[in-house]
Design a protein that fits this description.
Structural class: alpha/beta
Radius of gyration: 36 Å
Shape: elongated
Distance between the termini: 138 Å
Oligomer: single chain
CATH topology of the largest domain: D-Maltodextrin-Binding Protein, domain 2
Number of helices: 10
CATH superfamily of the largest domain: Periplasmic binding protein-like II
Strand content: 15-25%
CATH architecture of the largest domain: 3-Layer(aba) Sandwich
Helix content: 25-40%
Number of strands: 12
Length: 305
């Protein structure tokens, strides 16, 4: 009878080979399980992003009309004290100085500022803008905010007294000296409210349908002085009524009318500019610019007594 039993040596070899295959298989399964349970490595781009987030306000990342430039709009002629010599690019005047201070805060040089003529009424019209922001004594109003964006206010509009140089109040320096004066203002204005609530004159306040009527009354010496917002006071004395002057201005009232930088609706540059304005306010630079160009000898502040 023929035997089917393998030789001892062959059996041992087969057993050893089987054991080796089994061990190799277990090792591979263990390695695969460990790999699948380990957290996946983050992509290199994600690591870089977490380590160094993109600064949208860095000069190279600013969303401006022209890369590396800041295009600023304003009207022409550009009157003092907001601009000097009808030249916004010379850095002189309240709003010219603010524009360059904002540019510097954004990390741009003065040579990177480009000025563009923009008529006042078209600045806040809806639609695409060819400027990054417009600076032109533009008051922030809910109606305008429906179609354009504004920065935080850079100037709270002060009220001021305008008079002829020969007026009895031409040299007044205190609110007390105004109490006996014949003062006038346009109906429905904050200027009128200011007379009745702050000055509180002993004479009846003269109320006019519009500012033109009030200016005519002053020229005809029917009133001693006219109360208007400071920007209007500068315009009246610089371009409209000869031999007139700004007698003085009052300290700004909290919650009053504000001027803002105007942007195209949805412009992400607004956030960066607001950061700069906050820095200018906290450092005192914004007030220093205001005092240099909107106060001094041309529009001194009234004192209480």
């Amino acid at each position: 009878m023929t035997s089917t039993t393998l030789p001892r040596r062959a059996a041992v070899g087969i057993a050893a080979a089987s054991a080796a295959l089994l061990l190799a298989s277990c090792a591979q399964e263990s390695t695969s399980a460990a790999a699948s349970s380990a957290p996946a490595a983050a992509p290199a781009s994600a690591v870089a992003s977490e380590a160094a987030p993109v600064d949208e306000c860095a000069p190279e990342n600013l969303t401006t009309v022209d890369a590396g430039k800041l295009t600023v709009g304003t009207d022409t002629p550009a009157y003092p004290p907001y601009f000097v010599d009808d030249d916004p690019s010379n850095g002189k005047g309240f709003e010219s100085a603010i524009a360059y201070a904002v540019a510097a805060g954004l990390g741009l040089d003065a040579t990177d500022v480009v000025w563009q003529v923009v008529p006042f009424n078209s600045s806040y019209a809806p639609g695409k803008k060819k400027f990054d922001f417009d600076i032109n004594q533009i008051s922030i109003t809910p109606k305008r905010e429906k179609v354009v964006d504004f920065s935080d206010g850079y100037y709270t509009v002060n009220q001021a007294v305008v008079a002829l140089k020969g007026s009895p109040i031409a040299k007044a320096t205190t609110v007390k000296e105004l109490k006996g004066a014949r003062l006038g203002a346009q109906v429905g204005t904050t200027s009128l409210d200011f007379i009745t609530e702050v000055v509180k004159p002993t004479s009846d306040v003269q109320v006019f349908n519009d500012t033109n009527d009030a200016k005519s009354a002053m020229q005809n010496k029917q009133i001693d002085g006219l109360v208007v917002d400071l920007p209007t006071a500068y315009y009246v004395t610089a371009a409209e009524i000869e031999d007139s002057l700004i007698v003085g201005q009052f300290e700004a009232q909290e919650g009053g009318e504000e001027f803002g930088l105007l942007f195209q609706k949805g412009n992400p540059l607004v956030g960066c500019v607001n950061k700069v304005l906050a820095q200018l306010k906290s450092s005192g630079e914004l007030k220093a610019i205001q005092d240099e160009w909107l106060a001094g000898t041309t529009a001194p502040y009234f004192t209480e007594k």
